[in-house]
Amino acid sequence: NQIHASYEYTRKLNHKKAITQGYKILDEMAHIDYLTGLKNQRGFIELGETALKYAEAMGQSGLLLYFDIKNLKKVNDFFGHAAGDQVIKVVGEILQKHFRSNDIIARLEGDKFGVISAGLNIDNYKKVLSNISTECNEWKEKNNYPFEIDVSAGFAMFPSLKNGYALEPLVQKAEETV
Fold it and tell me: CA 44 to CA 36: how far, in whole Å?
């Protein structure tokens, strides 16, 4: 009986682990962009709202950034979508290099990325944007790419006078400034 009970306990424990692992995989699929490994739009919204609530509770200011890859349509049209996907991956990697691990970086859709960075100010943003552009240009030259690879960027400060720490209006404002 003890052997049987031990076997049943182990079987149930393994079953529970398998279910937990399955939920973890489904959660990643629902929140992670398959191409870049960054958060996807759903992950950005869920984590972004939490981050902005935390920033509000802590009295932090910061920036919500919106990036759009320049010339991606030309890359797709002339070299195909596999080349365009490569550019998207590279831009995602470059963004990861230039932001902190606690910043929220996401591929929102197509060639658009969002970043929420508590504590980031305009002066530092300009430096980061310059570094991102420089690195995109270095990648273009290193790989003999015939098209400019760069990003257009916009931002919204939080808290904003009009919208405070509300995610959706901040995203809209950042997108309008691109």
Answer: 14
